[in-house]
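Blinded run. Sample ID left blank on purpose so nobody reads anything into the name before looking at the predicted structure. Input follows.
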Amino acid sequence: MGNEKEIAVVTGAGRGIGLATTKRLLEDGFHVVMVDLNPEPLGANAAELKMASNSVEHHALSVADRPAVAGLIGSLPRLDVLVNNAAIFWDGKFDAVTEDDFRKMYEINVIGAFVMAQEAAKVMKRGARIVNIASRAYLAGYAHAPYITSKAGAIGLTRSMAIDLAPRGIFVNAIAPGLIETEMFRSLTPERQQELIAKQPTKEVGQPEDIANGIAFFASPRTRNVTGQVLTLDGGRSMGISIY
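Blinded prediction complete.
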């Protein structure tokens, strides 16, 4: 790995938004370090990307495993961008939600992002960028209280980190995707999918590449003096037409 390229770490990179982000950042000239808990899709997709580029590597680990995260971050010659995309999700009516549901969701969606960012900040230099992937769902939603709460936590974490890291010249921002065609969306019943699509102003589902383009904006070394911001990419869903 040459030190001349900026290095970006992308979590949840095995598929969906993380994979699309990896591809976009490779196009933008980064060396991309793909991280995912599930080694199978991660390895398969990384192998395909490596056929076209030697600027990609992959590591299977949990973002909440601090020793593993610290080992990875410490092995890099530099770190310019961290994209905290790893997350878990499931539907569940409020009366059926358990304390364990909240703990599991927070362990990855909030604590995992915190661990990654804290370790990254130890080695980042001025001008480095952190992008946290939240969700339009933080505004409210139906039948996934743990997920909504965790993504609201991701927004709070972003704003808090932005303040704390600003004196060191590290910029922290968040993306709030709406309805995107990922494994999370496909895990819903067909009826639930159609219900959500019907409430979209565009009447269609966004693509992972749409989110990757937003991430690329915050990840760009040309994006200066922007921190603590949330960019909502939801096909207009957050305009308040209705709440799902």
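Unblinding after everyone has recorded impressions. Helices lie at 16-27, 39-50, 66-75, 99-123, 145-165, 183-186, 190-198, 208-219.
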